[in-house]
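Morning. Coffee machine broken again, so started the prediction first thing and wrote up yesterday's gels while waiting. Chain of 243 residues, entered below exactly as on the submission form.
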Amino acid sequence: MEWIYLSPHFDDIALSCGGLVWEQVKSGDKVSIWTICAGKPPPEPLSSYAQSIHERWETSREPVSVRWAEDMISSQRMGASPRYFSIPDAIYRRSSMDDSPLYTSESELFGDLCLEEAGLVDTLTGELQKALPPASELVCPMALGGHVDHRLVRSAARELSLRMWYYADYPYIGQIDESKLSINPEMHQKVFPVSEAGLNVWVEAVAAHASQISTFWSDLDQVRDAIHSYWEPYEGIRLWQAT
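Came back before lunch.
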């Protein structure tokens, strides 16, 4: 079986599904991670908001190159094949009308996709249609937390009109009421078991994204504890699919 995971950013699959990816590869399945917002920033000066995020990441002048290298290590630990698309992260995208940054604050980054980017959804849908193999299990983010890049990926994937799986965006799932998980009343969840060995790989896959740890945690011990707590109730990872 071939599984294709759509990852808005470099670290989203490691965070949300790292243990499951490893278990699937270990069982003999082919697993690919398609990172959508992996494009380089435009040459124009960065917004002050983007610069502040770079300072938190401590990635010097080449944040995308650093994150790409981190992702290669993370994918190798999970056993998955990475693929990178050319759309830049939202913090780098600019208006085609006046070249101003489209997302310059936390509230904008976790709000609605700019109306100007409606065409970007169609563009991404077209790219996915061309790239998807004839038979595969597609796994898409629910876009929990509301990050615009997660919304972009979910919207484009849904335009494909394919039966697909959805994963809960971690750690955002821990910040919401689980009653809001249902995308529609016909969705049902399935628990995919993750062994303790898979749990360890999950932690190591997340740890590879060293620049991103400070976004949610203070150190790797907190990462390990948080992922263990998320895994423990089910000893696995849940995916959702329409009946």
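The chain is about 40% helix and 15% strand. Going to sketch it on the whiteboard this afternoon.
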